[in-house]
Amino acid sequence: MFRVCIFGTGYVGLVTGTCLAEVGHHVTCVDIDADKIDGLNEGRIPIYEPGLEPMVRDNVRDGRLHFTTDAAEAVSDAEVLFIAVGTPPDEDGSADLKYVLKVAETVGDNIRGSVIVANKSTVPVGTAEKVDGVIRERLAARGEEFPVEVVSNPEFLKEGAAVDDCMRPDRIIVGTRSKETADRLRQLYAPFNRNHDRLIIMDVRSAELTKYAANAMLATKISFMNEMANVAERVGADIEMIRKGIGSDPRIGWHFIYPGAGYGGSCFPKDVRALASTAREHDVEPELISAVESVNERQKKHLFELVARHYHGGENLRGKTFALWGLSFKPDTDDMREASSRTLVAQLREAGASVRAYDPEAMDEARRVFGEPEGLAFCDSSEATLEGADALIVLTEWKQFRSPDFRLLARSLSDRVVFDGRNLYEPADVESMGLAYYAIGRGR
Ligand code: UGA
């Protein structure tokens, strides 16, 4: 059993802390947001994440998981400290380290003995050295000198599958020079590291860059497929056939080759930009990485182009009403950060159209993001969006949108047309009901 302290109760911190408590460690999570901490102590989870809520409640009840705003107290007897605070982008896209460095100050001001400081936040190469410097400065100001090892331990969890990713990781990356520290972390992670060894030990800088490389590679696969889909659409080919044709090559693989309405979320857009910014800082022109981003920006607008094309020009959308299914950036989350829905809703409203939107989890978030402007109605169900709608647009592949009643759609949509930003349906199934069907890259 380790005594662990985690800074930050966002996705990464909350899920990591809860999973570490679940396997028997004694975990204290620290956040500066007192309301959030009060809620968590009462078992209220600020995010929607499958499986997380009961796990938090059980571990709080069993006394293994604590939430506090008192950083000094939490730090004082911890053996391993995790930094899992946000790194919002600066104006130039580079990651802003103010929260990470603030944690380093708190650590330096309050530790009372030897600690491992493991950074889980996604941070630019060289951050561990900065954190180390700040901690040492603060210790020196106190006239203290404790053995402190700052390691990079990036997180690879996916929203919507975060608990599972944390309990059964593909790999655990630890960037450290110290064999002793690596051994300690191996013990900490032992419950997640059964059957075969998932721990990959490397130098600190490589660990920091690995995180960006992983996200940028995945984003590259998506942008590549989106670009290919646009070619397929124009040449009269079907990207879904191409996806099957190339995914069966194990060197390419089946994952992350789904074309769509562009990637969103709190990670890919931010990390791709931050990596480009790191490359530039070091005199490397990030040609491919920049293209990944610009292809994605264009892709977020592609569905609107299909809509405008169907109506023979954006000017003909004035007065039209669109049912919209899905607002979150992907299923199983209420997160709308950088979601394609934000771009599309703005485009439709700008063109003078009305939108009737529904999302299984993101309705509160949508109200927060959009407010309640004229021309945007929030509905209680996917069926309710169809009332008075001319056309349907599907934007997030929630399970419940996968097999709709096409007869009902054909009866309800006065223009009898479905635009599908996630390629959920068989074109023949939709078209056999007398509906026109537009998807991504399916120009037949
Ligand atoms: C992503 C990574 O997948 C995680 O490994 C990483 O830990 C995390 O970022 C992070 O850095 O914290 P996440 O942002 O939760 O996780 O979501 P993903 O499931 O990766 O999806 C990202 C976006 O790509 C979504 O908008 C999704 O719709 C889109 N996507 C994904 C596609 O358009 N096509 C695909 O084939 C796959």
TrEMBL record:
Annotated positions binding NAD(+): D31, K36, T87, T122, E159, K270, R337
Enzyme Commission code(s) on record: 1.1.1.22
The reaction(s) this protein catalyses: UDP-alpha-D-glucose + 2 NAD(+) + H2O = UDP-alpha-D-glucuronate + 2 NADH + 3 H(+)
GO molecular function, one term: NAD binding
Residues forming the catalytic site: C267 (nucleophile)
Pathway, per record: Nucleotide-sugar biosynthesis; UDP-alpha-D-glucuronate biosynthesis; UDP-alpha-D-glucuronate from UDP-alpha-D-glucose: step 1/1
Domain called UDP-glucose/GDP-mannose dehydrogenase C-terminal: residue spans: 323-427
Binding residues for substrate: F156, L157, K158, E159, K211, F256, I257, Y258, P259, G260, G264, K330
InterPro entries the record matches: 6-PGluconate_DH-like_C_sf, NAD(P)-bd_dom_sf, UDP-Glc/GDP-Man, UDP-Glc/GDP-Man_DH_C, UDP-Glc/GDP-Man_DH_C_sf, UDP-Glc/GDP-Man_DH_dimer, UDP-Glc/GDP-Man_DH_N, UDPglc_DH_bac
Superkingdom of the organism of origin: Bacteria
BP terms from Gene Ontology: polysaccharide biosynthetic process; UDP-glucuronate biosynthetic process
Pfam (any one): UDPG_MGDP_dh_C
Gene3D superfamilies for the chain: Cytochrome c1, transmembrane anchor, C-terminal, NAD(P)-binding Rossmann-like Domain
Keywords in alphabetical order: NAD, Oxidoreductase
Entry keyword annotation includes Zinc-finger: no
Biological role: Catalyzes the conversion of UDP-glucose into UDP-glucuronate, one of the precursors of teichuronic acid.
PANTHER family: UDP-GLUCOSE 6-DEHYDROGENASE TUAD
Protein family according to the UniProt entry: Belongs to the UDP-glucose/GDP-mannose dehydrogenase family.
Protein name as annotated: UDP-glucose 6-dehydrogenase
